[in-house]
Amino acid sequence: MRKAVEGLIAQHGLAGKMHEADEMFRQLCGIEAIGLFALHTCINHSCDSNCEAQTYCYSTAALDVVALRTIVAGEEITISYIDKKLPVFQRRARLRRHYLFDCHCGKCLSEM
Ligand SMILES: [Zn+2]
Fold it and tell me: Does the residue 94 lie in any domain?
């Protein structure tokens, strides 16, 4: 797979052009990214997450977890598994359906 990706990048003259290569793969595949990231899977969900995952998967096979706000020492790192802008009942329904848990984050509790 990696050789196929590198071949496509070279074929389109996008070697070293990370964002252009990612855009090409997004257009070809119609998806953002697919990957398995062992450390990323250890990060819990919050609808008011303090981080977000950013992928540049195709060209670098990397995933960055970026802080969305100041994180104090000892605070749990969280990301949102779903669209945080959805109403609370839709967020909770999606989390139940796709991730099999009920969210009890502060945002959900304050909106219920
Ligand atoms: Zn929540």
Answer: no
